[in-house]
Design goal:
Elements (H helix, E strand, L loop, with lengths): L5 H6 L3 E7 L2 E6 L4 E5 L9 H6 L3 E6 L3 E6 L4 E5 L19
Antiparallel strand pairs: 1-2, 2-3, 4-5, 5-6
């Protein structure tokens, strides 16, 4: 999704804060959900599965090409360019109960 994407524009309601990263953005809404947009290889594009899990975020960090979010329940989500840390499916069992 690019910054002018119509779907992203529709999703940007009741925004509480916006995080800016190199080539990507994340809006955190009042209900605790998040919307991302920008370059895929910067974490701006999420799969539907990741999008559904972007809730109750405590901390969001980025690398050159990926984003990681720590949720309040201790789960860590990653997305973006796999070579930059955006793919964590194989280590998901260890990305729980993170403080």
């Amino acid at each position: 999704a690019r910054g002018g994407d119509e779907k992203v524009s529709r999703d940007l309601t009741k925004v509480q804060s916006i995080e800016a990263f190199p080539n990507a953005f994340m809006a955190i809404r009042e209900d605790g959900t998040a919307v991302t947009w920008g370059s895929y290889c910067a974490g701006g594009v999420t799969t539907l599965e990741i999008q559904r899990k972007l809730r109750h975020l405590k901390v969001v960090r980025h690398t050159q090409g990926a984003l990681a979010a720590l949720r309040s329940d201790g789960h860590v989500l990653t997305w973006g360019c796999p070579l930059s840390g955006g793919y964590s499916l194989t280590i998901q069992p260890w990305l729980t109960n993170v403080k």
